Amino acid sequence: MKVLILAAGLGKRMKSKYPKVVHKILGKPMINWVVDLGKKFGEVGVVIGHKAEIVKSYLPADVKVYIQEPQLGTGHAVMCAKEFISPSDDVLILYGDVPLLKEETIQRLLETHTNAKANATVLTFIADDPTGYGRIVRENGKIRIVEHKDANEEQLRIKEVNSGIYIFSGKFLLDNIDKLTNNNAQGEYYLTDLVEMAENVETVLLDDPVQVSGVNDRVQLSQLEAVARERILKELMLSGVTVVDPTSTFIGPDVKIGIDTVIYPFTILEGEITIGEDCEIGPYTRIKNSILGNNVKVIRSEVEGAVIEDNVSVGPFSRLREGTILKENVKIGNFVETKKSTIGKNSKAQHLTYLGDATVGEDVNIGAGTITCNYDGYKKYQTFIGDSAFIGSNSSLVAPVKIGKGAIVGAGSVITEDVPDDALALGRARQIIKENWAKLKREAMKNANHKE
């Protein structure tokens, strides 16, 4: 099956300089929710129009893109992607601003369509207030869609309405798409007219209309995010994850979490994340696009683009930036920042430290206030710290530099040259003592103030 996603609209009511379909639900652009669903059923094509380059930048490389300019209705959008349609494949029509459709709903639609060998199959639902929706009209064994503005009094009482989601036979679509006309008040070409042309039309009634809810403004965006969040959290809890307070927890659709992991309040997990078993995440923690092993603790911290192996503790108030790799049993403590650094097994950086562009061996102790000085204003440089080294507090390691295995760097040192294995390195000024200097200074200041 081919999957064609219509995503060319302007979205005026969003009041945004960005196209509607790139606005996010739980950190993921709406268009990507729909693309990921479509990929489960076949090759995906997307019709874009308004600010096309922005939308295109969010699409995976294997998605085919078609431009609709100007935007003259849903039928016109399909006309713009005719080369995507094959007479031997069915075509599923989806929308870039309808992100919550479920896989099992599409499967039902496809099974009905295939079993009936239909020209067209329409996903419908019962609307308590059908105002504005196209009505599903069944007359003389035929099914057609009558728009609200064209419906007579009897048709207006019909509550079964068109969702806009269809599966068409590819051959039927190619044979009839160019027969659509724009003889209507809007001067646009509508897919609904194709249903009336079809000889064999099927419908599938949806009992969960929120699945086909679209987004027209930011209020609706927030409403759908609430639905998506509830779905995801419920599924996680039923699969063995503890979510202490679902009302303050935000977890995206591409997050996988192992059993017996606990998610504490005010935690945000977005992007592609894998978290193992028996972990503790939060409170007040944000993780994005990262991999966490088993028995990992991340408390009051920020993690993005990191790999954290088993039995690691992070935080509170740590920041792991992209390219961070923490090996087993590492401890990263309060106010520690890492970037493009690998920290070896059993190593510790417990306080007030920056490790950037660094490779740290196993069993290393990084003292409080240590900084890898990795940037000279022009280029970034690497720091290497060997196994079992000890870096004293308040040390500055000026890259490029290597600290050997078992070496000790004295507290307060500025290290600019490589340190051999098992050596002691000191890089600080000699301490000077001036007896009674402080007392004399205080007396001088007191006398000066008294004269004034």
- CATH class membership of the largest domain: Alpha Beta
- CATH architecture of the largest domain, by name, is Alpha-Beta Complex
Tell me the Rg in angstroms. Answer: 31 Å
Q: How many domains?
A: 2
Largest sheet descriptor: 16 strands, parallel
> What is the helix content?
10-25%
CATH fold annotation of the largest domain: Spore Coat Polysaccharide Biosynthesis Protein SpsA, Chain A
- Stretches with pLDDT under 50, minimum 5 residues: none
Question: How many alpha or pi helices?
Answer: 9
Category by helix and strand content: alpha/beta
Distance between the termini: 92 Å
What is the structure about, briefly put?
The chain is α/β, with parallel strands linked by helices and 452 residues long. Helices cover 20% and strands 31% of the residues.
Key phrases:
9-stranded parallel beta sheet, alpha/beta, Bifunctional protein GlmU, magnesium, 39 strands, UDP N-Acetylglucosamine Acyltransferase, domain 1, Spore Coat Polysaccharide Biosynthesis Protein SpsA, Chain A, 2 domains, Nucleotide-diphossugar_trans, 9 helices, 452 residues
